[in-house]
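anyone seen this seq b4? input:
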Amino acid sequence: MLIHRMTVLIIGYFCGIFLPGYAYSRWKHKDITQMGSGNAGTTNTFRMFGWKAGLVTLLLDVSKPMVAIFITWALFHRSEPDGVRLLELYAGLGTIIGHNHPFYMKNFKGGKGIACTGGMMIAFCPIEVPIGVLLLVGATALTKYVSVGSMAGLAGFFIQTVLFGELGILNVTEAYRMEVYAVAAVIMLMGIVRHRENIRRLLDGNENKFSLKKKAE
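predicted toks r here
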């Protein structure tokens, strides 16, 4: 299984490295990494280019882990029936790593992986999605900070994964259950670490508030 873990991580990574927000900005003869927060993900695309570009970016970012997980299932559901669920989660992790740290970007800086995490939840355990969306949207609406909503959604993903795993809903065998929880914890912590600058700004009181309106140039 070790080689299979590495294989799906690589598959996920290369599914994740395409950054639609960055590609859109270059199509517009701009560079999103030099605009707003400097992040190449969905939220900064919303802020810099408006809701249409942001929505397209969101949909494409969500689709990346879904593609990686489908490929993983197609490759291993027969040869590794007991471990394929774990491999799917590793594929999702690889996609988030690729999205956050694409090799071709300066300093390997991409997005923050929230939309990718959402797509992974849809493909890996869709019953986690309603609460995840509720936490993200609810916390964002209450605070006006996407970063707060994103971190709430990440925590919700981990808690639900453990809860549903213990209830047997994830269809993960006992041999791999703790590893599934460990990978889910890594995904959560990785997302929170990617928000460290947002956390500093929140503590300093100068974090950007969310708006669907395109930011004036």
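Residues 2-204 form one domain. The chain is about 70% helix and 0% strand. kinda curious what u guys think
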